[in-house]
Amino acid sequence: MAPYRNLEEYNIEITNEVKDHFSKIMDDIGEDVTREGLVKTPERAAKAMLFLTQGYKQDAEEILKGAMFAEDYDDMVIIKDIELYSLCEHHMLPFFGKAHVAYIPNGHIVGLSKIPRVVDVFARRLQVQERLTHDILECINKTLKPKGVAVVIEAAHMCMMMRGVQKQNSVTTTSGFRGQFEKIETRNEFLKLVSADLS
Ligand SMILES: [Zn+2]
Q: Would residue 157 show up in a list of annotated catalytic residues for this protein?
């Protein structure tokens, strides 16, 4: 047996249903779904869609609770430049960018890799950037009960770039702050650290 195998499991019934829908859409837009290059496309598209929306069946609070550790550390913890890929709920087109998350512990810290996982759980659904920001913020606030939590998301939206207003370089920034980050000095310290280029 291989030392490591990355297993992907798809529900066969749901995959087949979504596959049939994609096949119908391709036919409706004028494609010949029987031509060679497209034979497996409906299935691939179905699997891609199920992968990109897997967050519906995942529990972000459980992910955090599974890696909380008692610790006296009470300075700011920042995880910046978390890659983010989501789908806008209005067009089902991607929006993507970076999330920056910070919290000030209140007796507990959390395994650092769990914060990007929480971002993914909420990003892998149909979303709007504003709600995504608050989903991440409230999940950390509720589960970790920190002294403060901050989330900033910068993202480009394909629905703006490829269609509609066709603005190629506009980036949307959303932010949310709770607890000590509602104080202007703390918030500014966080924003300064997030925008600093450490490389
Ligand atoms: Zn959109």
A: yes
91 annotated as a binding-site residue: yes
**DSSP letter, residue 90:** T
Mean pLDDT of the chain: 94
pTM of the predicted model, to two decimals? 0.92
Residue 18: strand pairing partners = none
| 139 labeled binding residue | no
- Distance, in Å, from the CA atom of 38 to the CA atom of 161, rounded to the nearest integer, reads 26
Query: Pick the catalytic residue: 62, 71, 83, 89?
Result: 89
pLDDT digits (tens, 9 = 90+) for 154-175: 999 999 998 877 777 789 999 9
Class of domain 61-195: alpha beta
Active-site pick, 31, 43, 58, 91: 91
CATH architecture entry for 7-52: Orthogonal Bundle (1.10)
Residue 54: DSSP 8-state: G
User: Was 21 annotated as part of a binding site?
Assistant: no
Annotated catalytic residue 88: yes
Phi and psi for 97 in degrees, rounded to 5? 170, -135
Domain ranges of the chain: 7-52, 61-195
Reported as a single tens digit per residue, the pLDDT across 77-104 is 999 999 999 999 999 999 999 999 999 9
159 catalytic? Reply is: yes
